[in-house]
Amino acid sequence: MERVFILILVFFFGCSPKVIHFLNESAPYAGFNTYQITNVKINNADISPTGQEIIKHIESSIIAEMKRRDYRPQKDPDLVVRYELISTQETDVNVNNYGLYGPMYPYRTISVRTFLESALLIEIINLKTKKAIWHASVDMNNYRKEKKMDDIIQKAVTSIFNTYPYKAGSGQPDKSLIIE
Fold first, then answer.
1. Is 50 exceeded by the pLDDT of residue 31?
2. What are phi and psi of 75, to 5 degrees?
3. Is residue 124 within 8 Å of 134, Cβ to Cβ?
4. What are the CA-CA distances from residue 120 to residues 46, 55, 103, 159, 179 (Å)?
5. Using CA of residue 57, residue 63, residue 66, residue 68, what is the dihedral sign?
6. Which of 93, 105, 161, 171 yields a CA-CA distance of 20 to 30 A from 82?
7. CATH architecture observed for domain 21-171
């Protein structure tokens, strides 16, 4: 019984965040060497200083991952790397009619909890065909234990890119790109 409990703990706490991804196996990866980063939704938006910091961290993490794969940034690229941070604010309202004294003395209590739900999506698009060759996303709430924003973003981007196994100019997947 004790062994089963330990296995369950290892399973739940030892798992990395689940990344949802798609990889087009038939894309001509050997022909891709250059890239450009974009986020269509923020090009004309009025962004707060905190939002600008988040964008800076996302883009620098993407640049590091593309550099690790030997891709070069260029104004007329082979690939476009597009990212999007999707978030919504959720509110949970809990009404309890029994309060502190039980059902004999009704006392209504209301608790309201507000939290942010967010996900990071990154996709790579073949500029020649205008079709996605890879995309992946991760639930950012999986990184709540991290304290610093740049650590959260860096870990999320790394876990996303762990599903993209190609180096620039190579048509063969490279297992060394997967960081555990």
1. yes
2. -70, -30
3. yes
4. 20, 11, 45, 11, 19
5. negative
6. 171
7. 2-Layer Sandwich (3.30)
Q: Tokens standing for 107? A: 């006392």
List the structure tokens of 140.
């950012």
Return the domain boundaries, the chain: 21-171
Q: How far is CA 95 from the centre of its chain?
A: 34
Q: Which two tokens stand for residue 26?
A: 């038939």
Q: What token pair was written down for 37?
A: 């980063």
3-state SS, residue 158: helix
Residue 14 one-letter amino acid: G
Place of tokens 């209301």: 110
Assign 48 to helix, strand or coil: coil
Single-letter residue type at 124:
I
Residue 39: what pLDDT? 82
> Which pLDDT score, from 0 to 100, does residue 99 have?
53
Report d(CA 115, CA 118) in Å as an integer: 10
Q: Does residue 177 contact residue 68 with C-beta atoms inside 8 Å?
A: yes
For the segment 136-169, what is each residue's pLDDT rounded down to a tens digit? 999 887 666 667 878 888 989 999 999 999 999 9
Burial code of 111-123, b = ≥16 C-beta within 10 A, e = fewer? Answer: eeeeeeeebbebb
